[in-house]
Amino acid sequence: MNFSDFISRLACVGLMLVSFSVSQAQPAQNADKIIAIVGKNRIILQSDLDQMVAQSMQNTPNEIVTDSMRCLILQDMISGKMLVEQAERDSLLVSDDEVEGQLDNRIRYFIRMYGSQEKLEAASGKTIFQMKEAYRDVVKEQMMAEKVRSKILENVRVTPAEVQTFYNSIPKDSLPFYPATVEVGQVVLAPPVNAELDKYARDMAEDIRRQIVKDGKSFEVMAGLYSEDPGSRDNGGRIDGVTRSGYDPAFVQATFRLQNGEISPVIKSRFGYHIIQMIQRRGEEADVRHILIIPQHTDADYKASLLRLDSIRAEIIAGKLSFGEAVSKYSTDEQGKMTGGMIADPRTGSTQLQVDQLDPQLALMIDSLKPGSISQPQIFTAQGERSTRIVILKSRTEPHKANMRDDYAKIQNVAKAQKEQQKLESWILERLPTYYLHVDPKYSDCSGIQHWLAETARN
């Protein structure tokens, strides 16, 4: 297996471990059927394989679906079922709370990826609640499989010598070509709100609430007229599947105090002033409507924020505090604090960002920066909101073929992943005699699966 094939294999494994589809369901072209059975009753349907192949295509849209790819994906799906079986044998189970937490994490990931809850629901054709229900069992099995996988691979390590040997084994014409990348961090400072305009926004929210509660006006209509939340305004202010995580704490606290049909007092979050109506609560999940009024900023507000950032920048340059300390102490981007201010690709979590995929505003800011230098404070717009920031360019790489100097960490990760894959396959071959395995003849001649069936038959 060459380097490119192994990377493709890793992508297939990654799909099994960390993802679930948010694409709209496509009409079935043929009658569904069972194509594999593992153990007593763990089945894989043709539609399951088709969905995983479709997900693979979303991640690598320029790749052509081949029989080899289908075989690799099915092989990894079978191995996943074996790991779940082993988890049950070893009592490595997961609780409902663990599954719920993992579902919440994945939903938040896709909300960031698509830009809003509404866009995610439009893309999937499902509400957040429906997505959770559809993938609950899938995620539970993935978590059980990962517990066993982690146990099998817990002692796998690679030495620098092994990394070098792995790199030397890659044919030079198979070395991957990496595009130009950068690592970029930011300190974000939301401008202060003018006291008079803040009071104006609150008074406006109080008046809207009065018209709904006292005058009997429709909450949905008022949301459509006045709410400044673009994600829910056109849907009468409706947000389905609100949980205690992933939302502003003040918003969550006010939401879960409400009974069905009840309307909250005006509450303040970091986004502005809200009026919330409880539609329906299902345990620790709620469907609500809300109206958001955002206090407006003046030019003086932005000027004050830029001046504060200029002082913070001067402190960093003078060595009085590190960039990470500045993020922790001053940044108003709570999510960014989790990565030390480094901007990460929402699809992969990597802080290595391809230059040609950067937001134009950011690309322009770092164009003249040298690694280690910090930009001048600037106003920027993200998801329709204006704020201010300073940016640090941590590193920059030019387009190049993989090499040990620039890409050691990447090569090390692939070398370790290959060693883990070999360890996992050895474990599977060792355990095969203890599992029932049936594969549809259409796929039984896949090379890896054929080997497994031969081992099963031999024993």
Explain what the structure shows.
The protein folds into three domains: 3-176 and 402-458, Orthogonal Bundle (Triger factor/SurA peptide-binding fold), CATH 1.10.4030; 178-192 and 298-400, Chitinase A, domain 3 (Roll); 195-293, Chitinase A, domain 3. It has helices at residues 3-18, 46-59, 67-89, 96-114, 117-124, 128-153, 160-169, 195-213, 219-226, 249-255, 299-317, 323-330, 334-337, 360-366, 404-431, 447-458; strands at residues 34-38, 42-45, 177-178, 181-189, 238-242, 267-269, 272-282, 285-293, 353-354, 378-382, 385-397, 400-401, 437-439. A four-stranded antiparallel beta sheet has the order 9-4-11-10. Strands 5-8-7-6 form a four-stranded antiparallel beta sheet. A three-stranded antiparallel beta sheet has the order 2-1-13. The protein has 459 residues and is α+β, with helices and mostly antiparallel strands.
Residue-averaged pLDDT: 87
CATH level-3 fold name of the largest domain: Triger factor/SurA peptide-binding fold
Outline, from the CA principal axes?
globular
- Euclidean distance between termini CA atoms: 27 Å
Largest sheet: 4 strands, antiparallel
Tell me the radius of gyration: 26 Å
Number of continuous helical runs: 16
Assign the CATH architecture of the largest domain. Orthogonal Bundle
Helix content: 40-55%
Q: Structural class given helices, strands, pairing?
A: alpha+beta
**How many discrete structural domains?**
3
CATH class of the largest domain: Mainly Alpha
Number of strands: 13
Q: State the low-pLDDT regions, or none.
A: 10-18, 24-29
Going across the major beta sheet, what is the strand order?
9-4-11-10
Q: What is the strand content?
A: 15-25%
SSE string = HEEHHHHHHEEHHEHEEEHHHEHEEEHEH
CATH level-four homologous superfamily name of the largest domain: Porin chaperone SurA, peptide-binding domain
